[in-house]
């Protein structure tokens, strides 16, 4: 039973999936021959189908690693390109087209490449064999072929005909054997003719006597002998069988007719071997023997590879087991764990603080807009009827002007769109937190999973956004109409807004410092005092008055009559000067308001019209408390509940093996780790199989050795 080749092919497939280096290749039969020597015809006769590319131009540009798998109980015959994933091809003309395309994909200028095409053919009519078809030798390069082609083909063939491969050297009977390129090549690497099978094709083209002489050649004797064949496909069969029917029997019939017509030369009593069937048997036996004798060499090579893999696994990965599933599960657990810790640290108090800080800013804006802003743009005296800075502290408590001003300011605050604002602030915070958790998690190096998690987060937040925002807006509605304040609330507001103003003052001063750094302290002072003087009317500007600042023009600055300007453009200095002026005024103003807020006058809410800062702070605080109540229920709790579940559904158990594998392999470190484990496992499997074969082989041989 020819079991060995089959099992060895199995082992080879295992080794191929780990992308094994050359050391582990198992022996194959390498088919070489000149163009038109009948090489394709021989291979097709063995397979029983026309499947090789044909054409006047050289079409085989890549080696074809052809594996034949005998499937005794199956009906169907089909080919498969394992590396391409095109599935089973029962139509052999499709196999032929695919091979042609793969060959033509090699650029004309490269002519040939040693990147092999793998093709497996399954059939009940083929023996288990592993063959490699190579481009045919050429004598001279064709007109549209590069001159170095001849050498390139020869080099490629030389690479493959090395031991332990068996060489199938094809020569045509009608060409003098001394001129056979295939035999000459094989002789160079196998001078004693120990691993070469000579195939003489086109036996029908020479006289039977001459044919007989060729087969009993003594000049280059081969231990495995010569086999004569007639493999021309009978025309009628070729026409009808394209792509489907098996052509073996037609070829055999044709061949048989020829050889049996010349019994003397080729009959059973002659001293030569002929026929495709004989050739098949020889191939099987020879390959089986070669495989058998390469067993221990292959085992040693596998053992060595395995030792290296084991060592690498130990040194680099400390023998730490890992699988794609466990990696994903651990990553997910780790991430969920860190999310849980975050959820515990980011609750109502934190949301409240964040939201209040946001509203504090809005309060500052409203105050600036309604009370504090000096119209800097406008160089004429301020247009305000009343100046809050001067007039507010001594205002008439019954003055409707101040009442309206405070009402309008309060209304600006309550009608700000608190629902939307608050929801946005919290949703953004959650989103940013998830992002930063991701950045420090295993998922940082898994773009696919990273995206899944970001998407999960966004989708929940988007889902909840409008309902939360509406809810919050609804709940703060009463404040749009009436606001009642308790004394303690006032005291707290006064305290808080003091801090906010101080902070505001600090950032004003920082900004001022920044402008000073850019312009230069002295220069800035000069520019500011100049602009100030223009504003107060102490300087009358000449010139065309362009620039929109009441006649203050960049042109004037350009004339440089007041400043030595160097690095900064004049207009920049001008605008920075205005900015400086604004900041200086604002800082002065905040200092004053800070004093006011701290003064006795603002100690109680009786004087709320004098102290809009405190009042607005209290309102902002009320709005915050109410908003937080609902944000907590509608957004925060919902998010904390749904997010881990959404993660499970996106990255949890129901992912397919392929998806899990793809995920794990996104991280190059994990990929290497998984690869080494897989390599180790497959080498162990290959070794186990090869030991099994050795035992079988040993048992099969024993009776032979027995006396
Ligand atoms: P390759 O270029 O070496 O693959 O050669 P092919 O297999 O394509 O054969 C070249 C030519 O020789 C084709 O026209 C075949 O039909 C023809 N041919 C192949 N084998 C035989 C044979 O045994 N007898 C005859 N008469 N022609 C053959």
Write up this protein.
This protein is an alpha/beta fold. 59% of the residues lie in helices and 6% in strands. The chain contains 23 helices and 9 strands. A 9-stranded mixed sheet has the order 3-4-2-5-1-6-7-8-9, sandwiched between helices. The longest helix has 42 residues, at 276-317. The radius of gyration is 45 Å and the shape is elongated. The two termini are 22 Å apart. The structure holds guanosine-5'-diphosphate.
Topology record:
Layout (H helix, E strand, L loop, with lengths): L2 H15 L11 E5 L5 H9 L16 E7 L7 E3 L11 H13 L12 E7 L5 E5 L15 H12 L5 E7 L8 H9 L6 E6 L6 H8 L10 E3 L6 H7 L6 H13 L2 H4 L6 E2 L1 H42 L6 H22 L2 H25 L15 H4 L8 H15 L3 H22 L7 H29 L11 H33 L1 H15 L18 H6 L10 H29 L13 H40 L5 H9 L2 H38 L2
Parallel strand pairs: 1-5, 1-6, 2-4, 6-7, 7-8, 8-9
Antiparallel strand pairs: 2-5, 3-4
Helix pairs in contact: 1-10, 1-23, 10-23, 11-15, 11-21, 11-22, 12-14, 12-21, 14-21, 15-16, 15-21, 16-21, 17-18, 17-20, 17-21, 18-20
Task: Kindly list the characteristics that best describe this protein.
alpha/beta; nine-stranded mixed beta sheet; 9 strands; 59% helix; 6% strand; elongated; binds guanosine-5'-diphosphate
Number of strands: 9
Percent helix among the residues?
55-70%
User: Which shape, going by the Cα principal axes?
Assistant: elongated
Ligands bound, unique? guanosine-5'-diphosphate
Strand content: 5-15%
| Poorly predicted segments | 375-385, 543-567
- How widely separated are the two ends? 22 Å
- Biggest sheet layout: 9 strands, mixed
**Rg, Å, rounded:** 45 Å
User: Which strands sit side by side, in order, in the main sheet?
Assistant: 3-4-2-5-1-6-7-8-9
Mean pLDDT: 85
If helices are DSSP runs of H or I spanning 4 or more residues, what is the number of helices? 23
- Main structural class: alpha/beta
